[in-house]
Amino acid sequence: MSNSLQHAQELDRHDRLSHFRDQFWIPKKTDGSEQLYFCGNSLGLQPKAAKAAVMKELTAWQELAVEGHFKGQRPWLSYNDVLRGPMAELIGAKPGEVVLMNSLTVNLHLMMISFYRPHGQRRKILIEQQSFPSDRYAVESQIRMHGLDPQECIVEIAPSGDDRIIEESAIEDYLDAHGEEIALVLWPGVQYASGQFFDLTRIAKSAHAAGALCGFDLAHAVGNVPLNLDESDVDFSVWCTYKYLNSGIGAVAGCYVNEQHGESNDLTRLHGWWGNDPKTRFLMEPEFVPASGAEAWALSNPPILAMAPIRAALELFQQAGFASLRKKSVEMTAYLEQLIQTELNDSLEIVTPADPERRGCQLSLRVLAGRDAGRALFEQLEAAGTIPDWREPDVIRVAPIPMYSRFEDCWLFVNQVKGFLGKN
Ligand SMILES: Cc1ncc(COP(=O)(O)O)c(C=O)c1O
Questions:
Q1: Distance of CA 190 to CAs 132, 140, 163, Å?
Q2: 417 in ligand 1 pocket by Cβ < 6 Å?
Q3: Which of 26, 32, 17 is nearest to 44 (CA)?
Q4: Is 103 in the pocket of ligand 1 (CB under 6 A)?
Q5: Is the CB of 389 under 6 A from ligand 1?
Q6: What is the Cα–Cα distance from 21 to 37, expressed in whole angstroms?
Q7: Which residues have a Cβ under 8 Å from the Cβ of 209 and sit 6 or more positions away?
Q8: Model-level pTM?
Q9: Cα 103 to ligand 1 centre (Å)
């Protein structure tokens, strides 16, 4: 494959999804030219339709006030119902297994209240050693709420070498040997620092074989990699919508509850009126009658102004089709990988697995000269209007996003890195 800029531009010309870039606001550098934005794995860019979507709801509020719940083009009462379908498609689930509410960490707590029920010797939670801090804090505090000691009840699996990759077999081996102590396996879909995409069906299966329940944090997976939660048979999952789903800063998060639990009345669950069956919600009876499926976990009436951008963002996924986005994503990430390998092999190490089945669009890079050189490179890139991100201790994450990134962006990035490392 040619490493020329012309070749990158040729790839963009043949890209059938290239017009979706025009649907997004691309941030500008100080000189007015477009940034090279590789940070959609942290905060997705704003769809141009987001503002209009919010304005429509502000207008509905202005014109309809309380009647906006039932009237207008998008009655607020059924807002979640409209979002559930397209969201369920992205995660391989049924609409009734999905609810949009709160934020990721809040949903993780709500899920652990139901699905972390330590008893007898089965009291531990299995997580990865490098788990995202918020997940760890949530796990620790849930363990404490049961009067238990996190030191004793958190079990961590570490990467076997210094390559930061955890083999699924390590999880299976642990569960084979000690599964009877594990109450819950909590695992990421895509690891935030390494970019590793795990075989989720395998993990849920081994958790269940050990008699444990299983939950996934899909913050870096939804909208990035193909998911089939129903096939994986996981008990619950949580994710945010502000990364690959481009739904806005701190946007309302997603939550999946396997349908086998959705109708259960035996689960411990925190209740609020929005989790009550919609048929009887407004009878204002004292008795809680759970809604069917994931909706039973909802507590409050949904923040429509914060949910409007999700609607706009999911419409773009529907138009593009996730299979096409994934195809482009695999090609574009392989293209970036190939450029790095041929042009920067003696300076950068790619931490993310090489197998496309084991990663999404993100490549995590380490500068071979060490952490300080890596940090310096990151700062030079940022100063030049190129936006990857930095994760301590030493990783530069670069995510070409199929919805709006170009092959040319990848080429320009590598060319810039070469310049900063004195290789041009
Ligand atoms: C993997 C992962 N888990 C949890 C969180 C926390 O999300 P929130 O602040 O929306 O609760 C993040 C945020 O970036 C994340 O990347």
A1: 11, 21, 16
A2: no
A3: 26
A4: yes
A5: no
A6: 12
A7: 175, 179
A8: 0.97
A9: 9
